[in-house]
Amino acid sequence: MAFHIRNPQTEALARKVAATKGVGLTEAVHEALANELKREAGKESLADFTKAFVRELKAKGDPSRARPADKAFIDSLYERD
To answer: Fewest C-beta atoms under 10 Å: which of 21, 29, 64, 73?
Structure first.
């Protein structure tokens, strides 16, 4: 199956990687994509990150210090200098 890189800058990068590693263009692209998938697989999902973030915020919060978010407070968040 043919694969055509239409973006000249992307093609130049692929050729540079292939030349640097001393491999063919297909192998260079394959290796780069495989490495990128490995890197992404090692990352925490956005959902898991968000859950952990919310848990940390809840742990740091002190409900006894809470103040009501009345209209004046909300409006103050949108004031411009």
So the answer is: 64
